[in-house]
Automatic annotation (TrEMBL):
Residues spanning the membrane: none
Family: Belongs to the GPI family.
Broad EC category: isomerase
EC numbers for this chain: 5.3.1.9
Protein name per UniProt: Glucose-6-phosphate isomerase
Keyword Isomerase attached: yes
Metabolic or biological pathway: Carbohydrate biosynthesis; gluconeogenesis; Carbohydrate degradation; glycolysis; D-glyceraldehyde 3-phosphate and glycerone phosphate from D-glucose: step 2/4
Length: 547
């Protein structure tokens, strides 16, 4: 067992981090006029500028050495070859196979995955075209107008984020809606304006056991059946995406309308599979393929580019540097492109469910900070809400700024204003402004000495806050596919560097189990044994007041 802290490269980076904490990014720019060229990369679909991090050439050299000591390249190979790198669940991790459209056979456990993937795509194409062209008819013979995707986590966030991002490209053949929350308010709001005769439900659940999804699915079924007065209407209005065909069949969904998903595709990496049905329904199959192609382009980049020119690897190394070595606890994702308004929520699951863990591959406490908490908002809205904290709090929050050279909106006259903020905020976070500059500025503005003395300390921005810039040419299905895959491979690389099992999610199980237990007690009105007084007190209060 080779623990990360025992690696010489890790130890050297710890020492180097102590020195770097005394440095200032702004000074590093003054010392090296080529810094932007040295620390930026042009990848198909986007420019990645990481020069505004607290790094030097030595830092990067040390980080690449660490990556090699961690055998990142070999692990990358293992993933692409289908080795069972999801060790705690004994599974391969092959979402990359979903977007590899070559016809070359890929054999896993005696089965040709290429055939499976291509068959699934044929099924997705046939189904989505039938619905979009008005050939899929509801129980009363009417064409489908609205599609409701019922699913949660990975069975919701990816498709929703993508259809929101690409809605400018939708031809509105159907309207796509999402229900993820077990709170009945959401499904009530979604169903209120819909016509049962013209509504199709996709029950998206890899396991087909998730309580929230099953509760919503049953409500949707009752809504339909109470309008149709006919239980057999279910097969005309429900399809499923699931690995659990038995449960989906028992629900009343015809076998040919159950789309497969496999155990080598993790929920949070599944939008490329039939979980992406809402994407193909909303945008058409060709756009869905463009999305896959964009992702595949980054798969090839990740697989083939040397570590020094590999964007996902560099992103992972920087996150490790900022969090584990420099001590940041959180990371902001700040899209300056309204279409990406669901990206942060999507990445919260992708990154935090993957790497938000504290034991290593051998089940030992890692003894270092793993990943930061991910949060954020559309940049402009964030500027008027929490950027105060980014600029002046004691906590340094490294941030990813994501923008586009061209906007996809036809509205003119906004994009330069938006992007001026994109550039300015990164500059301000890095450069800051010291007290002397503040004082001189106030003096030049004719302020009194008393005012200057009072206000100057409050106007200081310490700066030295790291940011990455990801600048897309324009939001499109292809560039979005690339952007998502960039983060997926970053997450994979980070897991390897941290020696963490990125593809399980045991941390969600405890709460789920307790909720099932409590729900039973609520339904049967029984007392719960062995609970702490707070849990018991809260439940009793709820029972007394609510019933
Ligand atoms: O698709 P399913 O099986 O309903 O699971 C939904 C989500 O629930 C989780 O298991 C976490 O609770 C996620 O990993 C997953 O994306």
């Amino acid at each position: 067992m080779q623990f990360r802290q025992n690696l010489k490269s890790w130890q050297e980076l710890l020492i180097h981090a102590k020195d770097m904490k005394k440095q200032n990014i702004k000074d590093l720019f003054s010392e090296n006029t080529e810094r932007f060229n040295d620390f930026s990369l042009k990848v198909p679909a986007f420019l990645f500028d990481y020069s505004k991090n607290l790094i030097t050439e030595r830092t990067m050299k040390g980080l690449f050495t660490l990556a090699r000591d961690c055998q990142l390249e070999q692990w990358r190979e293992k993933m692409f070859n289908g080795e069972r790198i999801n060790t705690t669940e004994d599974r391969s991790v092959l979402h990359v196979a979903l977007r590899d459209r070559s016809t070359k056979p890929f054999i896993l456990d005696g089965e040709n995955l290429t055939d499976k993937v291509n068959q699934a795509l044929i099924q997705i194409k046939a189904f989505t075209e039938k619905v979009r062209m008005g050939q899929w008819l509801g129980y009363s013979g009417k064409r489908i107008k609205d599609v409701v995707n019922i699913g949660v986590g990975g069975s919701n966030l990816g498709p929703q984020m993508v259809t929101e991002a690409l809605k400018q490209y939708s031809d509105n053949s159907v309207n796509v809606h999402y229900v993820s929350n077990v709170d009945g308010n959401q499904i009530a709001d979604v169903l209120r304006p819909l016509d049962p005769e013209r509504t199709l439900f996709i029950i998206s659940s890899k396991t087909f056991t998730t309580t929230e999804t099953m509760t919503n699915a049953n409500t949707a079924m009752n809504w339909l059946v109470s309008a149709a007065f006919d239980q057999t209407a279910v097969s005309k209005h429900f399809v499923a995406v699931s690995a659990n065909k038995e449960n989906a069949g028992n629900f009343g969904i015809d076998n040919e309308n159950i789309f497969d998903i496999w155990d080598w595709v993790g929920g949070r990496f599944s939008l490329w599979s039939a979980i992406g049905l809402p994407i193909a329904l909303d945008l058409g199959f060709d756009k869905f393929i463009e999305l896959l192609e964009g992702a595949h382009e980054i798969d090839l980049h990740f697989k083939n580019a040397p570590l020094e020119e590999n964007a996902p690897v560099i992103m992972a190394l920087l996150s490790l540097w900022n969090c584990t070595f420099l001590g940041s606890q959180s990371q902001a994702i700040l899209p300056y492109d309204q279409p990406l308004h669901k990206l942060t929520a999507y990445l919260q699951q992708a990154e935090m469910e993957s790497n938000g863990k504290s034991v290593n591959w051998y089940g030992e406490e890692v003894g270092y900070s793993t990943v930061p908490s991910i949060w954020g908002e559309i940049g402009i809205n964030g500027q008027h809400a929490f950027y105060q904290y980014l600029h002046q709090s004691n906590n340094v929050v490294p941030a990813d700024f994501i923008g586009s050279v061209k906007s996809i909106t036809s509205v003119q006259g906004h994009h330069d204003t938006l992007m001026a903020n994109f550039f300015a905020q990164m500059e301000a976070l890095m450069s800051g402004v010291n007290e002397q500059q503040v004082r001189e500025d106030l003096k030049a503005k004719g302020r009194t000495q008393e005012y200057i003395d009072k206000v100057a300390p409050h106007k200081v921005h310490k700066g030295n806050r790291p940011t990455n810039a990801i600048l897309l040419d324009q939001i499109s299905a292809k560039s979005l596919g690339s952007l998502i895959a960039l983060y997926e491979h970053k997450i994979f690389s980070q897991g390897i560097l941290l020696q963490i099992c990125s593809f399980d999610q045991w941390g969600v199980e405890l709460g789920k189990g307790l909720a099932i237990n409590i729900l039973d007690a609520l339904k049967t009105n029984t007392e719960l044994d062995n609970r702490d007084s707070s849990t018991t007190g809260l439940i009793n209060y709820y029972k007394c007041k609510g019933r």
